[in-house]
Amino acid sequence: MNKRFAFKLALAGAAALMLTACGEKEAPKAPAQSGAPAKAADAAPQPKASEPLKVAFMYVSPANEEGWSTQHDIARRAAEAKFGDKIKVTTVENIPENADAERVLRDLAQQGNKLIFATSFGYMNSVLKVAKEFPDVKFEHATGYKTAENVANYSGRFYEARYLAGKLAGATTKTNILGYVAALPIPEVLQGINAFTLGAKSVNPNVEVRVVWTSAWYDPGKESDATKSLIGQKADVITHHTNSSAVAAACEEAKIPVISYNTSMKRAAPTMLLGGVIQIWDSFYEGRIQAVMDGTWKPQSVWGGVPEHMVALVDIAKTTPQSVVDDIKAATEKMEKREFHPFTGPIVDNTGKEVLKAGQVATDSDLLTMGYLVEGVAGKLPTMN
């Protein structure tokens, strides 16, 4: 999720993402490289039929914290438990989204890993480059939108669970001010902020969502400071789209209800956790590993949500009124049946411009190129460097 290029790449190429549920599209070719092709692929040992499949996971942040990488690592452990000695797994963590990512990916391929999961948006270009050098290695890139002959991508419809979280926050607030700590203004993050706001306003039309941007996916110090800033602005329910548990910890210290992201952060906020928006990768990882073992792996693009059990709102506080729980449950059931879409018009942005007419449902292309904040969100989008 490299902040220097994420937003431009997302707007330029996100519309090209074709979802598995809508039918597969021939994968685009990886960008051409200058100079002679690398010979690194020759160095990658070929597994014998009796050898375990070597699988690698690359994380952008620590895997032992409550956060983005932790949730992927939970699924990794589930896969190891399922396949046992049929697979041999390597994990690397704290890999920044720069030249280090390319180096580490190349090392993992040279070590004989035949399936590599690169679990952060900013790894995208590095994945494409290294994949071209190792055509016999399968690469899976999380939250990206580009594919190649040996590169697939996958993500969750996080905005669906965000909408449910908004209902919970909107029904809980007393000040009518909700806080949101956000990393970068790319479509994925804007979907979450907007869906959260729409969910909150569906139960409390008077709410206002205030956003503090950290300009980083993983920076606990900035995340904590952003939380304190929102508390100073009278936000009495706070959520986040960042990768550490700092927001939850700061809310616990200040005794402010928090809706966590990535994992249900019970350790960080044992008394103030209102709920958790999580991703669920277990079945997906197991399925992709099995596909490589079966020889059926293809460079698909997956964007799964509530119906696919890839996102959820969990651990709703026991103090939540039953009427609120029932409302969230009813909305979840409609999403599961694809009878309800959070981005259904009429929707206007926070400048008063209509973005969806009454009854109009946002297309995936609309979502993947989202560049606005809905009515109810305070402030303007920051500019990307």
TrEMBL record:
Ranges annotated as biased composition (Low complexity): 29-47
Keywords, ordered alphabetically: Signal
Origin: domain of life: Bacteria
UniProt entry tagged with the keyword Repeat: no
Secretion signal, residue range per the UniProt entry: 1-21
InterPro entries: ABC-Purine-Binding (IPR052910), Peripla_BP_I (IPR028082), PnrA-like (IPR003760)
ABC transporter substrate-binding protein PnrA-like domain boundaries: 54-330
Annotated stretches, region: Disordered: 28-47
Xref: Pfam families: Bmp
Record's GO cellular component terms: plasma membrane
PANTHER family attached to this UniProt entry: ABC TRANSPORTER SUBSTRATE-BINDING PROTEIN
Entry protein name: BMP family ABC transporter substrate-binding protein
